[in-house]
Every structure is written in C-alpha cells, then in structure tokens.
Write a structure and sequence with these properties.
alpha/beta, globular, seven-stranded mixed β-sheet
C-alpha cells in the first residue's frame, strides 16, 4: 500500500519536525475508483501548501498532503478519514506525537473535522467544508476549528458550516467562522485571500502567530465571528476578512 503522507514541495518527513500541517483535498460523495492521475482537487491544494510553508518558514513544520485510496467518501466507510488516520500514524512513527493542524477543502474538510478526534490534532482549518446536518461534533472538545465559506457556494452550504460551528462550540471547541466575500466552492475568486487566511490560521493554531480577533469558546453566547469581530446569532457567521488579514 502506498504511503498516505506525501510531503509538500521542499519538505521531507524527519525526526526534526516539531509540528505538522496536513492538507486534504476534496472529492465525491460516492466513488470507489482511485483519484485520477490529473487530480484537480489535489492540485487546488498546492497553493495552500505553499502559503502554509511561507507562514511557518521559521519553524520546523512539516507540510504534507494526504493521499486518498478512493475518490469518494462512500457512506459509512468514510474512506478519507481512514486515510487521514494512516497519515497520522506514519507521521507519529517518524516524528513522534507532534501537534498537527488539518487543512481540508470540501470532502477533505469533513474528513479533517472527523479525524480531529486524534489526540495529536490540535486544530482544523475547514475550507468550504461538506458538513451535512447531523455531522458529529462532540469529539471536538478542546480543539480549535476555523471555517471559511462563501455563502454563494452552490456545492456545499455555508449555512450547514455555521450550524456545525455552533454544535462544535457547544461541545467546548474554540471556533471561528469567516464569511468569504468571493470564491465560490472552488475558491477561485480572491484565491490569494483564501490562501493567506488559511495559512495564517494554521500558523496561529500551532501557536506560531497571533490569531486576529481570537477564537470563540463555549462561554461566548454570540455565535461565530470573523476578523472584524462582528458578532451574530448562533448558527450564522457574520465576520468578513478585514484589514487584520
């Protein structure tokens, strides 16, 4: 079986790593075929890997991609979650129990949120994640979750993301929802802003940089916020990227 952990350009898995950021691309609800050789969802994550590398350049942070065995989530099998767990095992075997932030897009966002039950995972950056109603969040206690979503997304629903953050906050996770003004599901419009915010959030969740505006905890009744610090009702996101980013 091929390795699940694939270091990004300029990185290699070694005992020197003091932390890691693993990137998870999108996929399909159901597909038992392997990802194609020309894998556009995986290519979409490369600029994020480069941005995270720049944001963590002064630290021994491994940036790597997770390789999927199958293209789809595939119901109860949740195949991408198993792949993330294999990648974490491979990381532990070499670098030990170092802190990890998972950055996932769409299906990869859902897989990252599910896999955050692993004790090594300290936080998740979810990009236009697939968060269907009823998606479990109780395991996120003491974790940090940052979610970016364009409310014009026609593939996954931003409202589901904000509702998920509300459930995570009730489970005593620290959360931040960021309403992106453009980008759609593919994060093409204002791509640089998506890259910059995601990378900055990953670095902040590893304790390498301050997080503009901080994160909400379960004691805050206002609901998810954005970098501008404009609170809103529970289950909605009212923050938009501001000058702090």
């Amino acid at each position: 079986m091929r390795a699940a952990l694939v270091p990004a350009r300029g990185h290699r898995l070694s005992q020197r790593a003091t932390a890691a950021v693993l990137l998870l691309h999108g996929g399909r609800a159901d597909a038992l075929s392997p990802p194609p050789r020309l894998n556009l969802p995986a290519l979409r994550m490369r600029p994020f890997a480069a941005a995270v590398t720049r944001a963590t350049t002064d630290s021994d942070v491994l940036v790597a991609h997770v390789r999927y065995r199958y293209r789809g989530w595939n119901g109860r099998h949740a195949h991408p979650v198993a792949d993330v767990r294999r990648a974490l095992d491979e990381l532990r075997a070499v670098a030990g129990p170092i802190p990890v932030v998972l950055v996932g897009h769409s299906m990869g966002g859902r897989a990252a949120l599910r896999a955050a039950e692993d004790p090594q995972v300290t936080g998740v950056v979810a990009l236009a994640p697939w968060c269907p109603p009823g998606e479990p969040a109780a395991h996120l206690r003491a974790r940090a979750v940052v979610a970016l979503h364009d409310e014009h997304d026609r593939v996954t629903r931003a409202a589901d993301t904000w509702a998920y953050l509300a459930r995570a906050r009730r489970a005593e996770a620290r959360v931040r929802g960021i309403r992106m003004p453009r980008g759609g599901h593919a994060m093409i419009g204002d791509a640089g802003m998506w890259h910059r915010i995601a990378a900055g959030a990953a670095a902040a969740l590893l304790g390498l940089a301050p997080f503009p505006g901080g994160l909400q905890d379960s004691a805050d009744p206002a609901g998810p916020e954005g970098p501008e610090g404009t609170g809103g009702p529970e289950g909605s996101a009212t923050g938009t990227p501001g000058s702090a980013w």
